[in-house]
Amino acid sequence: MTEPTSQTAAPGRCRRTPPQSPRPEALRRVAALLDGGERFVLTCHARPDGDAVGSLLGLGLALEAAGRDATLYMEAPVPPHLAFLPGSGRVVTEPPVPLAPGTVLVVLDCGEAGRVGRGGERLAREATSVVVLDHHLTQGEFGRDVVRYVDPEVFATGAIVLWVLNELGWPVSAEIATNLYAAIVSDTGAFQHNNTTALAFAMAEYLVSRGADPSGVARALYQSWPERRLRLLGLVLHTLEVRAGGRIGLLQATPEMFRTTGAREADTEDFVNYCRSIDSVEVAVFIREVHAGNVAVSLRSKTTYDVAALAQEFGGGGHFHAAGFRRSGSAGEIRALLLERLARDFDDLRP
Ligand SMILES: [Mn+2]
């Protein structure tokens, strides 16, 4: 464990303990399961973001430091833009078969076995117990009893992981702090989204005092993209369309755009926010068709519109202001369906 420098640790200048959780009982149940377990499998939702990966690695490193056997499983390798996170090299992309008796499955930043991707449902079935640490509104079934710490009011799953570690009295190393700090930065949009609370800053302060490097994390998250991402963005921005008197903005990426730029789906992270950045836009939509017939949609809202509810109608989910879904079909078909549905909420939206 890296000790904070004497400067940051000076009394009155840094937090000795992280802020407390508002749900101490749920926290105690989770902590008891982690403390009593010997063998763990940690996983998160497929196509993970910084909160999913940071939470998974942060908890994984803490379990290992506490002498537990922890397998960190994701269905695909850590996305390149998150590979800087300490411990990312320990992630395996094959789920362990079969699960050793006594294994505790911990599902992070995801409330549904089906969203873990390949092997998620089997892992949930075979595990001795299942713990869910999450903050999504949309919660689904695991087909069994699950111990959940789920709070949609919390800005990041990384915050819940920090509470769990604090409850256990396990040390927060610089590596763990970096992961949890990156989780919070990612899910608050670098402290810009309206989930950014005083608690988010208090936790960030604590994590920086434990060794997280804010400018290093910002550089890795926001200034380390391959050139092809910007080439793709250039093409995507040309597709901008605003509807409903400017309140709905749409962007689209076609298979051809991916082909000509060599960009991948992971390179489109946060593209939807360019649409939301328009002054009049309340609902931002980014439709991407990576392979023909295979469409993903990102939805964002600025203030009062619930995009989680909208995404759920299309088989997806998420948060009030940030959600998404995937469907088979053409981008054009799904765009038409979506606009038809949005016309119910936006009177002046004409098909
Ligand atoms: Mn999250």
Mind explaining what this structure looks like?
The protein folds into 2 domains: 24-222, inorganic pyrophosphatase (n-terminal core) (Alpha-Beta Complex), CATH 3.90.1640.10; 227-342, Roll (Diaminopimelate Epimerase, Chain A, domain 1). Helix content is 36%, strand content 18%. It has 12 helices and 12 strands. The chain has a 6-stranded parallel β-sheet, sandwiched between helices. It has a 6-stranded mixed β-sheet with strand order 7-8-9-10-12-11, sandwiched between helices. The N and C termini lie far apart (59 Å). Residues 1-12 have low confidence and may be disordered. Residues 40-184 form the DDH domain. InterPro entries: DDH_dom, DHH_sf, DHHA1_dom, Oligoribo/pAp-PDE_c-di-AMP_PDE. Residues 1-24 are annotated as: Disordered. Pfam families: DHH (PF01368), DHHA1 (PF02272).
